[in-house]
Amino acid sequence: MTTTIIGFPRIGQQRELKFATEKYWRKQLTQNELLQVAAQLRKNHWKVQQEAGLDLIPVGDFSFFDNLLDTANLLNIVPKRYKRLGLSPLAEYFAQARGYQQGEVAVKALPMKKWFNTNYHYIVPEFTTDTDIKLVGDKLFAELDEALKQGINAKAVVIGPYTLLKLSRFLEDTTAKNFVPALSAAYAEIIARLDQKKIDWLQIDEPALCLDVTATEKELFKELYTGILTPKHTTKVLLQTYFGDLRDVYQEALTLPFDGIGLDFLEGSYNAELVEKNGFPATKTLFAGVVNGKNVWRNHYVTTLKLLKELTQTIAAPIVINSSTSLLHVPYSAATEEQLPADVRQHLAFATEKLVELKELDALKHDKIGNQQFLEKNDALFANVKHPYNAAVHAQSDHLQPNDYERTPERKERQQLQKEEFKLPLLPTTTIGSFPQTRDVRQNRAKFRKGEITRAQYDKFNEEKIARIVKIQEEIGLDVLVHGEYERNDMVEYFGEKLDGFIFTKNGWVQSYGTRGVKPPIIWGDISRTAPITVAASVFAKNLTAKPVKGMLTGPVTIFNWSFPREDIAPKETVTQIALALQGEVFDLESNGIKIIQIDEPALRENLPLRKSNWNQEYLDWAVPAFRLVHSKVAPTTQIHTHMCYSEFGDIIDAIDQLDADVISFEASRADFTLIDQLAAADFQTEVGPGVYDIHSPRIPAEEEVEALIEQIIKKLPLDRIWINPDCGLKTRSEEESFASLRNIVEATRKVRSSVNETNGAF
Ligand SMILES: CN1c2c(nc(N)[nH]c2=O)NC[C@@H]1CNc1ccc(C(=O)N[C@@H](CCC(=O)N[C@@H](CCC(=O)N[C@@H](CCC(=O)O)C(=O)O)C(=O)O)C(=O)O)cc1
Ligand SMILES: N[C@@H](CCS)C(=O)O
Ligand SMILES: [Zn+2]
């Protein structure tokens, strides 16, 4: 056994799982039909891996929504409110992931958060006093039976108890510690069940061990696994880590009776030093993560073989060549991207190409005769790489001065000037930018893409949409309007397509959450803006209304983080180039009369290094200036908004304030209001719009519910610095849900305004 991967993309080459699941939700497919599509996809994916020559194939990495939710359901960690609905297991699972509304019965979805520093999202499990952990799920075992029947050399995969506890929510005074014995017993039972099935390896994913681990957490880790590994078992247990290095618990991992340890030698480059300094026992197997699961570039064999050689010379343990993370984070295959120039495409390795790389590396590592050609071909590729160079871009970024990053006058003064400029009511209402991307909007774009309609027809359709949505927003009574973002396929891909220096795929889909995917653009050359991007749509909307229209841009850090970056230059260099391109767009919006401009940075938080000690130097020190560079030179009366969603911002509040935006909207409705307390405690200076409507759920929030939320918010934050808005864009919702929710928000705001008025006489 010499090669494996941590996991494989499950949505299907043509996103079959997405389409089937969404049909099932719309009741156009039965549960059985959906299960059949899923089984066929697993079969295809195992076959692809087997045919590529992978020795050990992950099973259990498939999911209808999210693997952490799967693990929670496997262990009966399902809140009572979902069980009470009396649904089938699959329907109960989806109720947790998406919420449930049927007549009078309504249950919210569990919160969703970013999976470490990726653009993938997990569902947050919930522990309460009545959580009764026991092995109840059958999904993992049924999938293993399926794989074994198909002659697959299966490696069972689950998310580990440490990561599960670390990422969960604990309510009713429970703590992680309360659940250790029950969790250990349940995982031990999983191993016993795998033993019965004669499964050779169980991969337990513990990426949370690559975060900073405190002394107490270290004890938790030891206690959990002492309980899990003590009973006698023949299935070997692999502790699989990724997204970083294992420095805090390396010794403990070696001491515990794991049969294998999986280390990420790319993002966790320090792992190599750990192995060299502390050794690695010959009795364990090292699963060496050397093929990048998070980028799309070909592996440079010379570098990888050097690392593998050093490892072989340092340790006597058997080494399995592995991907550095699950391949979930890359698209399925580059082979069908024929539209890309051959000299670019040859540098790409998506999931299926990475399988080939693992096999070739294995052959080279074992010095199999005749394999030298792989090495020569690979080396030639790297010797001849030519990224397009733009001298003007370099001249601009080389001449940046400190004051290019400083906005004047200071924010307090600007806020005053802006209040006079816009004369907005107290608690101004707005949206985050996108309105529902209804079927006709996507079809219009698909037709244009296929050449079935002209550019003029495409634009006319979108203009009609803009005109309609401006009117609807006026009718609803929102204070700051948007144009609706109908022209965008995605908030990052769209900008990538308009900027020079990016390349795009036709079918490079990567799962973001549930059935939703993104097609990240790929940064290939120096980045520049060749023409205005958003000005026409914003100005068109502005001319239809007397209310202010907010211009909408995606920020430099988010464009960078949600693209596949180059690896030959530093992130700072690329992100500065993107910031300069967006700065031009901000100036153009401003000079065309757009006085409120939102620069979205939902991905600012997610790419923070996993270890806090690296946050500033490795990330915030270039991310924050990049944002400031985009907007610092606008007029004091131009109001700069930003928006963030899906992350815990509590620990980067200062950095967010440092962005020096005038207003920020963020997600708050799906989790809780902890962040509002943190903002209050930190004396946060940016005006804040905490989301009062969870757009990730089909539920329409009742007016009284929103009113109660606003009442809570105004008790905690300064009244004149609060905005009222949903927690993210409305692109994934239906118009019916969106308009009804917005009406409730506006009405609730009006009520709060008048009660404030009565009590304070201030309004
Ligand atoms: C805010 N979020 C985003 C993240 N990352 C991004 N890069 N972008 C984001 O917006 N990360 C965090 C969150 C994640 N949230 C989401 C939310 C919604 C989606 C989503 O809706 N994805 C869509 C695909 C959107 C898209 O690119 N559409 C294209 C092409 C659509 C398509 O498949 N067209 C079909 C025809 C369709 C038809 O006829 O009806 C085709 O071409 O065959 C477009 O609009 O043109 C999804 O469906 O998954 C993602 C992340
Ligand atoms: N302006 C974007 C932000 C999403 S994070 C939208 O409204 O969809
Ligand atoms: Zn958002």
TrEMBL record:
<feature type="binding site">
    <location>
        <position position="645"/>
    </location>
    <ligand>
        <name>Zn(2+) 1</name>
    </ligand>
</feature>
<feature type="binding site">
    <location>
        <position position="667"/>
    </location>
    <ligand>
        <name>Zn(2+) 1</name>
    </ligand>
</feature>
<feature type="binding site">
    <location>
        <position position="114"/>
    </location>
    <ligand>
        <name>5-methyltetrahydropteroyltri-L-glutamate</name>
    </ligand>
</feature>
<dbReference type="InterPro" id="IPR002629">
    <property type="entry name" value="Met_Synth_C/arc"/>
</dbReference>
<protein>
    <recommendedName>
        <fullName>5-methyltetrahydropteroyltriglutamate--homocysteine methyltransferase</fullName>
        <ecNumber>2.1.1.14</ecNumber>
    </recommendedName>
</protein>
<keyword id="KW-0808">Transferase</keyword>
<keyword id="KW-0486">Methionine biosynthesis</keyword>
<feature type="binding site">
    <location>
        <position position="728"/>
    </location>
    <ligand>
        <name>Zn(2+) 1</name>
    </ligand>
</feature>
<feature type="binding site">
    <location>
        <begin position="432"/>
        <end position="434"/>
    </location>
    <ligand>
        <name>L-homocysteine</name>
    </ligand>
</feature>
<keyword id="KW-0677">Repeat</keyword>
<feature type="active site" description="Proton donor">
    <location>
        <position position="696"/>
    </location>
</feature>
<dbReference type="InterPro" id="IPR013215">
    <property type="entry name" value="Cbl-indep_Met_Synth_N"/>
</dbReference>
<feature type="binding site">
    <location>
        <position position="600"/>
    </location>
    <ligand>
        <name>L-homocysteine</name>
    </ligand>
</feature>
<comment type="similarity">
    <text>Belongs to the vitamin-B12 independent methionine synthase family.</text>
</comment>
<feature type="binding site">
    <location>
        <position position="562"/>
    </location>
    <ligand>
        <name>5-methyltetrahydropteroyltri-L-glutamate</name>
    </ligand>
</feature>
<feature type="binding site">
    <location>
        <position position="728"/>
    </location>
    <ligand>
        <name>Zn(2+)</name>
    </ligand>
</feature>
<dbReference type="InterPro" id="IPR038071">
    <property type="entry name" value="UROD/MetE-like_sf"/>
</dbReference>
<dbReference type="GO" id="GO:0032259">
    <property type="term" value="P:methylation"/>
</dbReference>
<keyword id="KW-0862">Zinc</keyword>
<dbReference type="Pfam" id="PF01717">
    <property type="entry name" value="Meth_synt_2"/>
</dbReference>
<feature type="domain" description="Cobalamin-independent methionine synthase MetE N-terminal">
    <location>
        <begin position="3"/>
        <end position="314"/>
    </location>
</feature>
<feature type="binding site">
    <location>
        <begin position="432"/>
        <end position="434"/>
    </location>
    <ligand>
        <name>L-methionine</name>
    </ligand>
</feature>
<feature type="domain" description="Cobalamin-independent methionine synthase MetE C-terminal/archaeal">
    <location>
        <begin position="427"/>
        <end position="750"/>
    </location>
</feature>
<dbReference type="GO" id="GO:0003871">
    <property type="term" value="F:5-methyltetrahydropteroyltriglutamate-homocysteine S-methyltransferase activity"/>
</dbReference>
<feature type="binding site">
    <location>
        <position position="119"/>
    </location>
    <ligand>
        <name>5-methyltetrahydropteroyltri-L-glutamate</name>
    </ligand>
</feature>
<feature type="binding site">
    <location>
        <position position="667"/>
    </location>
    <ligand>
        <name>Zn(2+)</name>
    </ligand>
</feature>
<feature type="binding site">
    <location>
        <begin position="15"/>
        <end position="18"/>
    </location>
    <ligand>
        <name>5-methyltetrahydropteroyltri-L-glutamate</name>
    </ligand>
</feature>
<feature type="binding site">
    <location>
        <position position="643"/>
    </location>
    <ligand>
        <name>Zn(2+) 1</name>
    </ligand>
</feature>
<dbReference type="Pfam" id="PF08267">
    <property type="entry name" value="Meth_synt_1"/>
</dbReference>
<feature type="binding site">
    <location>
        <position position="18"/>
    </location>
    <ligand>
        <name>5-methyltetrahydropteroyltri-L-glutamate</name>
    </ligand>
</feature>
<feature type="binding site">
    <location>
        <position position="485"/>
    </location>
    <ligand>
        <name>L-homocysteine</name>
    </ligand>
</feature>
<feature type="binding site">
    <location>
        <position position="643"/>
    </location>
    <ligand>
        <name>Zn(2+)</name>
    </ligand>
</feature>
<feature type="binding site">
    <location>
        <position position="485"/>
    </location>
    <ligand>
        <name>L-methionine</name>
    </ligand>
</feature>
<dbReference type="InterPro" id="IPR006276">
    <property type="entry name" value="Cobalamin-indep_Met_synthase"/>
</dbReference>
<dbReference type="GO" id="GO:0008270">
    <property type="term" value="F:zinc ion binding"/>
</dbReference>
<feature type="binding site">
    <location>
        <position position="645"/>
    </location>
    <ligand>
        <name>Zn(2+)</name>
    </ligand>
</feature>
<comment type="pathway">
    <text>Amino-acid biosynthesis; L-methionine biosynthesis via de novo pathway; L-methionine from L-homocysteine (MetE route): step 1/1.</text>
</comment>
<dbReference type="GO" id="GO:0009086">
    <property type="term" value="P:methionine biosynthetic process"/>
</dbReference>
<feature type="binding site">
    <location>
        <position position="600"/>
    </location>
    <ligand>
        <name>L-methionine</name>
    </ligand>
</feature>
<feature type="binding site">
    <location>
        <position position="606"/>
    </location>
    <ligand>
        <name>5-methyltetrahydropteroyltri-L-glutamate</name>
    </ligand>
</feature>
<comment type="function">
    <text>Catalyzes the transfer of a methyl group from 5-methyltetrahydrofolate to homocysteine resulting in methionine formation.</text>
</comment>
<keyword id="KW-0479">Metal-binding</keyword>
